[in-house]
Write a structure and sequence with these properties.
Blueprint: H1 2-19, H2 24-34, H3 38-60, H4 68-82, H5 85-91, H6 94-113, H7 128-144, H8 150-159, H9 165-189, H10 195-216, H11 221-243
Length: 244
């Protein structure tokens, strides 16, 4: 099982770096198919995200300087929201968490499909309170289903806040640092964390993140959007298969 987890970590890390996500959106379905229940998959996924998001954001630093200010505010909101996730994971059934995952995937697919990869108009500034509330909401929901939050944050940034898609994914991975650290603390305090499995996947993800970010900067924005939609559709199919 250790080798499988390390291999999943490499795959998840590549996807995390390339798509600017925490990796949970691919890792959770993989772990469910491997035989873990939803709450175990969530715990492993959150610990992996701590590894991949910090390393990925360091690699992204030169390409994300223009979004760091907003990212800090949204990230602080995500940290506050993520602290509540342990309570939700402890008290909500596995099946309910899986259905919530599916609903969020469908929202993400629809929103990204109808949004341009690159905006012609200038991005508007938003109030700090609005950014913080968005971050807090995403932190609560995302950590409860074992994803970093980019799956929700990216379509919101692109569809409603006029971010270019690549900038949104860079900010999304930066956001995951805050939400995943808070989620890790909360899940651990509630006795739900699987440390060995999470560390195994997390260490493997570092390899994948490096190559994922390298590949991201070689892809055109329009093609990048198509890849994100394809990934989300594959994950949606896997979740529907496992749940229904």
């Amino acid at each position: 099982m250790t080798l499988e987890l390390a291999f999943f970590g490499i795959i998840t890390g590549f996807i995390s770096g390339f798509f600017g996500v925490g990796g949970g959106m691919i890792l959770v379905p993989l772990l469910l198919l491997l035989g873990y229940v939803m709450k175990e998959a969530v715990a492993i996924s959150i610990m992996q995200m701590v590894f991949s998001s910090i390393y990925g954001s360091i690699l992204n630093a030169k390409h994300a300087q223009n979004v760091v200010k907003d990212g800090l505010i949204i990230g602080l909101g995500g940290f506050v929201g993520g602290l509540q996730s342990g309570y939700i994971v402890t008290n909500v059934s596995n099946e309910s968490l899986q259905y919530l995952f599916i609903i969020i995937l469908i929202f993400s697919i629809i929103r990204i499909f109808y949004s341009p990869a690159v905006h012609d108009c200038e991005r508007k500034s938003h109030s700090k309170l609005t950014l913080f509330i968005i971050g807090a909401f995403i932190g609560i929901v995302a950590m409860s289903i074992g994803v970093g939050g980019s799956i929700l944050l990216t379509p919101i940034l692109v569809g409603f806040m006029k971010y270019d898609l690549k900038s949104a994914t860079a900010l999304g991975l930066f956001f995951v640092i805050f939400s995943s650290v808070a989620g890790f603390a909360s899940i651990s305090l509630h006795g739900q964390m699987l440390y060995f499995e999470g560390a195994t996947v997390g260490i493997g993800s570092l390899i994948g993140v490096y190559f994922g970010i390298k590949a991201k900067h070689l892809v055109k924005a329009t093609s990048y959007k198509q890849y994100i939609l394809i990934l989300n559709l594959i994950i949606l199919a896997a979740m529907l298969y496992k749940t229904i």
